[in-house]
Amino acid sequence: MITTILLSFGALFLAELGDKSQLMALTFALRYRWWIVLSAITVASVLVNLIAVGVGHFIGAALPTDLISLFAAATLIAVGLWTLREVLPGPAIVDDTEAAPPQTKSRSAFLVVLSAFLLAELGDRTMFATMALATKNGWIAVWIGSVAGMVAAGALAILIGVTVGKHIPERTIAAASGLLFLYFGAITLLGTLAPGAGTIGAIAIGAILPAVAGAVLLVLRRRAFERAPERSAAAEQPELKLP
User: How far is residue 23's CA from residue 177's CA, in Å, rounded to a whole number?
Assistant: First the structure.
C-alpha cells in the first residue's frame, strides 16, 4: 500500500508541474488568501480523485469529458472577465466584494476556486492518470497518493504566488490574473471543439482572446487617463454665482 501511495503521489505531482491547474493555483494565490486557495484545492482534489478511482476501479468507463470541458472553459472565461472588471477605469465600476463582510468574501472566494478547480480537473490528463493507476492498484492507496500529490503541487504554486504577489501592484495582479484565466479558458475550449489543432496550434490560437481583451483594457485605460486632466480642470473651476 505504501508503494502505491508513493507511486500515485509522484505521478500526480509530476503531472501537475507546469499544468494549467498549477498555474491556476498560482494565479488564485495572487488574488485570495493562501489558506482559502489551499483548502479549496484540497476539497477539489479529494472529490476529483475519488471520482477518478471510482471510475477506474469499479466502473471502468469514461465520463462525458467533452461536456465537462465546455463547462470548465465557460467557468474560466467567466472568472477572467469578472477579474478584469475590477481594473476597468471609471467610478462606475464598484467592487462588491470590498463592501462585503470578511466571512462573505472568504466564502465566495472559496466557491470560485473550488468550482474552477473541480471543473478544470474533471477530464484532465491527471484524472486519466489516476484512473489508470486505480485499474491495477488498490483504489484507496491511489486515492490517498493522488490527493497528496495534487495538493502538494498546488501548495508549491501557492507559495510562489504569495512570494511574487508581495512585489507586484494589486491592479497589475488583477489584470494579469484575468488575462491568464481567459487564456486557460480559451485553450480548454479549443482542446474540446478542435482537438485536431494540436498543442502548439491551441496555444497560439488561445492567445488571441486574452490579447484582444488586453488591447481593449489598454485602450479604455488610456482614454480614462486622457480625460483625467479635463475632469480635474472642471472640478477646480470656480462656480459662477448669478446675482
Answer: 10
